[in-house]
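Write out the 3D structure for:
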Amino acid sequence: MRGVQESLAALGYAIDVTGTFDWQTRVATEEFYKDRGVPSDDGVLDVETTIWMPNYAANIESCPATIGGFVAAAVPLATLHNEITSVRVAPIPKDLVPGARHLTVGETTLELGDAGTASPDNGDFTAFAAEPAVIEYLSSDSDLVLTGVLTLADPVRVLTVPASSIFGVGEAQCVSDGEDLYHVRIVASRLGSTLVEPNDPSQVPLHVLVDAPPGQQCE
């Protein structure tokens, strides 16, 4: 089931790879059949009549079957060359700062699309496939997880400030150095510290008050 989910995700369907036939898998399977004009039996993958190929073209390493011969159930028809056709980050972390992103595994960086998917047009897939972590992931029969570093394509300059120093209402947030106000946008917060992005990068405080000034309004 995990392989089917990974293939559906690579084809662009909204599905998480869980290894379990869940509601997402059922809907994605129904959409898969519908997109190809094939009747669907309530989202059930018909393994008796379906040959699952990773792409319209595939590089075959070996083919034990012969022309005109019979292939028994559960016997491999052919062995395909282990080729990566797409890479997808799943699940995408929530509450991310908007912007284009890169995925780095080892020494290789791929450009991700809006759905967290990279194609061979968005990076060097040959180098990606040669990464030791990727080789271990592809060759493992266990539930090994391939991890990488997700970064913004255009870095955001942020300041680390105490959470108590931020004041304002709604989307209007400010910090103060005791004399001036600085409008900021909250990027992330954890362990008592908050990352903020100044609305005006040319005006950055050298220090901020730990506690918001009493009665001060963020306008």
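Helices lie at 2-10, 23-35, 125-129, 132-139.
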